[in-house]
Amino acid sequence: MKYTEEHEWLKPEADGIVIVGISEHAAEQLGDIVFIELPETETEVAKGDEIVVIESVKAASDILAPLDGEIVEINDALEASPGLVNEDPLDGGWFFKMKLADPSELDSLMTEAEYKNFID
Amino acid sequence: MGLRRTPLYDLHTSLGAKMVPFAGWEMPVQYGTGVMAEHLATRETAGLFDVSHMGQVIIRALSKKNSDAALALESLIPANYLGLAEGRQRYGVLTNDKGGIRDDLMVANRGDHFFLVVNAGNADADIAYLREHLSDRCEIEVIADRALLALQGPAAEAAFAPIAQGASEMKFMDCAVFESKFGALWVTRSGYSGEDGYEISVATDNAEALTRRLLDTPGVVACGLGARDSLRMEAGLPLHGQDITPDTTPVEAGLGWSIQKVRRTGGDREGGFPGADRILAQFENGPEQKLVGLRPEGRAPMRAGTSLFVDADAADPIGEITSGGFGPSLQAPMSMGYVPAEMAKPGTALMADLRGRRLPVSVTPLPFRPANYKR
Prior knowledge:
heterodimer; A: alpha+beta; CATH 2.40.50.100; six-stranded antiparallel beta sheet; 9 strands; globular; B: alpha+beta; Gyrase A, domain 2; Elongation Factor Tu (Ef-tu), domain 3; six-stranded mixed beta sheet; 8 helices; 20% helix
């Protein structure tokens, strides 16, 4: 599992595809999540694009594309149950899967240990 | 200038509050369990809010006649304070020359003086304004040595009864002073959540002990500004600086009820407050815009600043959302905003621009959720 400075995690699957979600720390900071707007599948995204909108009771936040690639699947369960991100941010609360344009870019992201240092 | 702290600052941080800057104060926005849980606890049992940042002011007539203080207040606020009985509180708005709202406030008649509670962000300006206009007739005393707590929710009465003998008998908008273990408590049966409850002014030195005592009561939950905002929105209560401003009048904001008949055209004390011409004309002819409730379709909250349109294609907005968020008790998004009067009818379908997309909203009566006051 790799992490970004934007508090996203990326879990590699086969064929250059990664699952993307947000860290426990980020979910806790956002508070009770009430609505999530996900990108459409087959969308090409560039690193830094605002592709997910998260609304908590109090405020809206954006989630940025962690790397270049294409969205191949989204977590439909979040539409009806956005609270999944608070309850299970590292598994059931995943956002989308993307096919990376350059899978080697994953190496540039933080390891779990590095991320823990980053948020401390 | 640094942020001010209430007497409960240390308690908040020890309870795990997330502190944020608000109107020049460092205030708890939420505690560990989060806004949603705090909001729901207030609806189901009771929430306790530190509202010590709000301004507490006493107005005393130099003549010693409280009716003179009432008339002085009436020169700045379009409400009937001469007719407000001792031991009762009444909501009002300080108007400006355009009929806009400088601030909204609570005014209680305490026999030989009036007790005012004003918004934190406007307190300094309000006090200067009251001094400027009333000093020839009244003494304006700023209460700086008392904290203010709001205990809100269906369990508030039971939680407060052992502390203040007789508080259970109070009705909505009653005001009384109780001697207690925590010194004299200045109490009103009111709040900003749409629930029954009390606002309790307590001497700074006793504030933490009283707060701890209330929080020790089963069902009483510490709540922050986040829950205060979602509760007041569900209750359809406007927030000054957002839903009511120096550019909106009480008639436009649906606060015409706060201007009693005696201050309106044909009343014994008609007008005589800043902006009376405009406000009284709006009662006659109807205002051009109105503050309405708005229910977005779907689950996406629409917050302050969101533009409203008549349809999906219209180029120019017809209004704007002034408050909005997700209602934990409604389990749905809710907003308030201004629309032209002819579009203010409940059921009117409008479109809102959310991040570049037009999404449907419908005009809904306020409040979103009926109030639960003890009348």
